[in-house]
Amino acid sequence: MHKSKSVRHQSVGRFLIIAAVIAASITACNRKGGIISFGGEAQGTYYTVSYLDSQQRDLQPMVDSLLDAFDQSASLWVDSSLLRRINANLTDSLDPTLGYLLDYSLYINNYTGGAFDCRVGRIVQTWGFSFRQRSEPDSAELAALLDAARASVNAQDNRIVKENPATELDFNAIAQGYCVDLLAKMMDSLGVENYLIDVGGEVKARGAKSGGHPWRVGIEKPSADSISAPEVMTAIALRDASVVTSGNYRKYYEHDGVRYSHTIDPSTGRPVQHSLLSVSVVDSEAWRADAMATAYMVMGLDSALAFIAAHPDGPGSGAVMFIYDDHGTLRTYETPEFKKLTI
User: Distance between CA 107 and CA 53 in Å, rounded?
Assistant: First the structure.
């Protein structure tokens, strides 16, 4: 399990809101039609924030400060981040951000029967989908990596306890969603009732646009390769909810004619091999949508649909869209709840 989206080099990993890719060039606060918008770079990708505010406040400095503090805690690409120091066994102290990320990750790990797992950090790095050079592991190395990824990790008194010191954590498949939730809470605390937050495709909407119109979000059509221009597959109306897409068509590498996806199956320690190309999950919390989209990418289409049928009222079982390859033809499956959101 892994979704490339933490910091540098991950901007090719996912494109969710096509319009937001264009809006990412915004670096200063703009006002148009009553909507205040700004954007920039954060966590190795773009971010955009659009909102309505009767006080016409420029909230970009506060947003940038939160994004920077989040990177100092949870980024794998910042050498001095707390997560990097924990993985190197230089400290065992947890701050609130990592504490919540660990708790949420362990919850989803248990809920999905292991399809989601934050302990695959070293495996992801070995396959080259992180900050280390790729080297395909042999059977002995893979066995050692899996041992470390299966060792217990938990929090006790604001400290992390690792059964195996070689275990390295990777929150890439949940951290950006949680960061979006934190930004949303900040906007709520400031009395902003209508906004759209997008950090590299992790999206959260509150209220509506001017005139009461819902926020429109485009879901990307899976591309043939990592450099193709993004196209919209479908669009949804989003209000008081989050949507996250996980896909394996942007972040991959090819070797001897075989394409290796960046989505790692925690049970095998290898990139997944199945027909599922992307999953979009709508949930009230971005971190849950984030984690469940990745879990479904690990499961594959048939197992994911069986999981939803077995957990009809659980996280990630409501509005979900799957895009898959049917012998060269793109096909979709949308849950009834997702169909209600399409425009």
Answer: 36
